[in-house]
């Protein structure tokens, strides 16, 4: 899990846009419910084999947080046919690379191979699904790995807990109130049987999408997929009935402390809709208007001209069920945190009451067009996008037409959405302060 507010926010924003070149794909279902997406691109001898599972931190028992992220590590331990510790050796010895990542909403595994090893990639991912070895040795080993990751990327990282401190105040009942990496005491207390039950529930073909992208022969790959994944039995259907949050109607203010920082920060956070909602796309544009580069409104004002901030950022962190919109700033010198909030509020109020200029609107359109052109520039990126758009948006065609949503956004919508979500009675102001010895 990424460690800083900046990195995580940017990571969550990456991938919301699609490739300017038309991405051709074919999709179908296996009898066991696994969805398959194929993208053929024979321009380079490279192939990506990936599987996305619809399981993330929000699916965990509140007393057993961290399971989804833990499985991101655990399922590299080995299978009945891949000896423990040999996964990475097999991949690298065949000229490949692999990785995995977890969010609150999904878990993603992938291998990138020379295209003549596509069958190896399919076999390995089918092994992960059909024959994982989940035993106490693997659990104990990965428990220590995850603890070290948490110490390195969260506990000992400046501002590493800032997003977690915001989330637990913004979400009262929805599991987004937790962190993806979870609580270490929950992992310590979990039994082997609990890990095995989690695997049985969520790591089933009907809760997954398989993507094969790159230099492939689709007819050959389809046969391989049927051979390796077709016999895997369907699992019980995964159902979700997650609690809904009541609207925020009164301003909240709080403090959090971090022993790893010397410069305080201030965050104004607002709860926003799912990334499937049109308003989430508009909030993307508002964040770019406010802090997208050194020519943006907040950067020019607070960093360049008034010399009040070391850094300032507006980010739209959208997820499957809800989003967070946050204004973030680090003060310069003895500038107060309240001053930074006041100055940022002033610019938000302008968006709420005035239409942004035609020039700024066109600049935004150009920025999003540029992101559209440059995204999905690799086969691995395309595979990720195809999986994500199917799994989380239920619309794979967004890989080609999501840019049309941004193109259709009007200046009036920018004003109205800012007025709808970015109000002082709908937010948390969090002072993120250096921790003193007596705290």
From TrEMBL:
A Pfam family: Peptidase_M16_C
Coiled-coil regions listed: none
Domain Peptidase M16 C-terminal: 190-367
Residues covered by the Peptidase M16 N-terminal domain: 36-180
Signal peptide segment: 1-20
UniProt keyword Signal, yes or no: yes
Presence of the UniProt keyword Kinase in the record: no
UniProt keyword terms in alphabetical order: Signal
GO MF: metal ion binding
UniProt record similarity statement: Belongs to the peptidase M16 family.
Name of the protein this chain belongs to: Insulinase family protein
Organism listed in the record: Winogradskyella flava
């Amino acid at each position: 899990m990424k460690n800083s507010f900046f990195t995580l926010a940017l990571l969550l924003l990456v991938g919301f846009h699609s490739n300017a070149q038309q991405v051709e794909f074919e999709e179908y279902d296996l009898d066991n419910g696994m969805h398959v997406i194929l993208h053929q691109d024979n321009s380079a001898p490279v192939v990506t084999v990936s599987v996305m599972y619809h399981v993330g931190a929000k699916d965990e028992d509140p007393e057993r947080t961290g399971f989804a992220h833990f499985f991101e590590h655990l399922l590299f331990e080995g299978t009945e046919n891949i000896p423990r510790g040999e996964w990475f050796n097999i991949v690298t010895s065949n000229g490949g690379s692999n990785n995995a990542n977890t969010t609150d909403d999904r878990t993603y595994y992938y291998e990138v191979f020379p295209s003549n090893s596509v069958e190896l990639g399919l076999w390995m991912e089918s092994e992960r699904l059909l024959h994982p070895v989940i035993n106490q040795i693997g659990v104990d080993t990965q428990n220590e790995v995850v603890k070290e990751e948490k110490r390195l990327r969260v506990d000992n990282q400046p501002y590493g807990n800032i997003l977690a401190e915001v989330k637990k105040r913004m979400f009262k009942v929805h599991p987004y109130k937790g962190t993806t990496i979870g609580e270490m005491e929950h992992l310590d207390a979990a039994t082997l049987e609990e890990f095995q039950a989690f695997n049985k529930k969520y790591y089933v073909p009907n809760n997954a999408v398989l993507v094969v992208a790159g230099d492939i022969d689709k007819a050959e790959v389809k046969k391989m997929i049927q051979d390796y994944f077709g016999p895997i039995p369907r699992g019980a259907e995964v159902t979700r009935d997650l609690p809904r949050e009541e609207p925020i109607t009164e301003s909240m203010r709080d403090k959090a402390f971090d022993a790893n920082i010397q410069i305080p920060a201030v965050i104004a956070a607002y709860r926003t809709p799912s990334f499937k909602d049109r308003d989430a796309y508009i909030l993307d544009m508002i964040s770019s208007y406010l802090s997208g580069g050194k020519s943006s409104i907040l950067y020019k004002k607070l960093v360049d001209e008034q010399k009040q901030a070391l850094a300032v950022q507006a980010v739209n962190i959208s997820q499957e069920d809800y989003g967070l919109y946050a204004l973030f700033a680090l003060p310069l010198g003895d500038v107060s945190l309240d001053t930074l909030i006041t100055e940022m509020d002033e610019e938000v109020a302008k968006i709420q009451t005035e239409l942004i200029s035609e020039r700024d609107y066109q600049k935004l359109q150009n920025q999003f067009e540029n992101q559209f052109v440059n995204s999905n520039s690799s086969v691995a990126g395309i595979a990720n996008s195809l999986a994500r758009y199917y799994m989380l948006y239920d619309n794979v065609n967004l890989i080609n037409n999501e840019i049309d949503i941004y193109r259709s956004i009007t200046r009036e919508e920018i004003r109205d959405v800012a007025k709808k979500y970015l109000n002082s009675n709908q937010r948390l102001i969090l002072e993120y302060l250096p921790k003193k010895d007596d705290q």
